[in-house]
Amino acid sequence: MKFDVLCTLNNRLQRALPYTADGRGDRIVLTVKKEDIPQDVQQIDVRPDAFTAPAGSEGYIACSASCGTGDLLCPFTPRADGEWVFTVPILPLSGLKKDGFCAAAMALSGNLDLSHVVSVEGGVYRLSFRFDYEAPAYEDIVIVIRLLHGGDADYSGMARAYRDEQLARGEVRPLLERMKERPELRHAADTLYIRIRQAWKPVPSPVPEQTVENEPPMHVAVSFERAGELMDAYKRAGVEDADFCLVGWNRKGHDGRYPQLFPVEPDLGGEDGLRALIAHARSLGYSIDCHTNSTDAYRIADTFDEDELIVKRDGTVSQNSAGWSAGNMYHLCAVPGLRRAKEDFPRVAALGFHGLHYIDVISTVWPRACYNPRHPQTRRETAENWLRILRLARETFGGAASEGCFDMYVREMDYGLYQSFNLLGDMPEIAARRVPLWSLVYHGIVLSNPSAETVNYPAKTWKERLKCYEYGGRPAIYVHSAFVSGRKSNWMGDLDILAGTDEQLEKGARQVKRAYDDYQPLKYLQTQFMDRHEQLAPDVYRVTYSGGDSMVFNYAEADYDYDGHVVPAHDYILVKA
């Protein structure tokens, strides 16, 4: 296999770069050394000559795209010339299948600057790999290409190839192995994940730069006492096991005054009320952990320090484009973020929290470089420090959870709240359908819920329910998930599970019990690898697990006959081996 490796410099000149391609059997390793990359690099494009196919031919490009769109399958449909660039991909994995050829491509180094590029030019499709730089390169580019044959020659085989690569180099370990060391993981895999948003200030904030004097009032949705009543209602409904996570227990609620956490919010019941709730949850057989934040900072915090913020290359302070509960959100550099976690986590754990500790947004945010001379960080250094924060959570509380499932963080993660924000909405025009590449790689290694849409699926439609289990989800319930006003919708949906009135509380208990009942016969699959995903018919898909059992999902309007089993419309079946 030959490669074009083309470097674009800041003055827009282009030149070819030296590389090595070490081919041994069906595994080819392409390496571009950091020292061979010019200091004024802007972009590097890597184009394998075999990763092309004529429009109209059989086959496809499988491509891990962003957490906004999920993983995509792009057939070689005739179309006008164009280029589709998938930045910040969930996985550094893509591949191409055509007549007589199938291969997976895995970027193992340099992947924090990676985009997958699908292009059509003159009736020919191409898959290539682009690396964009805002500063000199800080590591080699290493791309492993695996040639796939026979039953491995499809997108499921591409994902298995990357899973094998990750396991072989010790980047990840199976859940079953880790459960022997941490019983918290077994409990998590066997239970629903239930988050309770307790309190928040208006979002978006009417006061961009808040002080104690102009701070907007906080809305209390679920006090500590009310959370105990919620747990009682869920227990009465038959939800025997659950993993609860409190969101907004800290000072002034969710995103109230980060990085400040303490004191425990008095309007929710204060520290005494929180300790009583934790004891009550345990008396019911529930685990209870909480939500903190290690990446964001607001000026109203009594711990705010301008010197701890990320500085961009142009010298300005890095800031979120949206204002949240405490107004303008600034990005905390990973170095002080880690230092703060070392100070805060023991205090949080001392309240009684234990389980899969949830750290907001880390695993759904692409690592940011920092140019603050007090704590400069490359993207890789930021990612490594965020991994240290996740590891510290695991060591302190028993486990680590976060919001997303970006590949660079799975080494230290036990649960991701959603792989993607969008699995049911519109796709890029180049794609024909979505495929669960991430699940095929990491199911049985990291617990996850598939998308923001499948959160609270019992309050939604049959589509969210099917998608949750097609992607191997551990269901996520979020009480009071919708809290944003002045926007078209909340990203987890406007159909919510609530606890404001007694009627809402009891309705929520019935909804959660439906998810609990769905999950009981399926939870054993969490410790197995997802080995194959395939389309059996239009709108009908089969998932096969490493233990041999399979599930068939019918999104069609009519029942489907599967090997003598009836799969009802808008439903699924579990088929034992």
Q: What report would you give on this structure?
A:
It is a single chain. It contains 10 helices and 33 strands. The strands form 7 sheets. Strands 3-4-14-11-10-7-8-25 form an 8-stranded antiparallel beta sheet, with helices on one face. Strands 26-24-23-22-19-18-15-27 form an 8-stranded parallel beta sheet. β22, α7 (379-397) and β23 form a beta-alpha-beta unit. It starts with a strand and ends with a strand.
Element layout with pairings:
Layout: E1 3-9, E2 14-16, E3 20-24, E4 27-32, E5 41-48, E6 52-54, E7 59-64, E8 71-75, E9 82-87, E10 93-98, E11 101-109, E12 114-121, E13 124-132, E14 141-147, H1 155-168, H2 175-181, H3 183-190, E15 192-197, E16 199-200, E17 219-220, H4 224-237, E18 242-247, H5 270-283, E19 287-292, E20 296-297, E21 330-331, H6 334-349, E22 355-359, H7 379-397, E23 398-402, E24 415-416, E25 433-434, H8 437-442, E26 447-448, H9 462-470, E27 476-479, H10 502-519, E28 530-537, E29 540-545, E30 550-554, E31 560-562, E32 565-567, E33 571-575
Parallel strand pairs: 15-18, 15-27, 18-19, 19-22, 22-23, 23-24, 24-26
Antiparallel strand pairs: 1-2, 1-5, 3-4, 4-14, 5-13, 6-13, 7-8, 7-10, 8-25, 9-12, 10-11, 11-14, 12-13, 16-17, 20-21, 28-29, 29-30, 30-33, 31-32
Helix pairs in contact: 2-3, 4-5, 4-10, 6-7
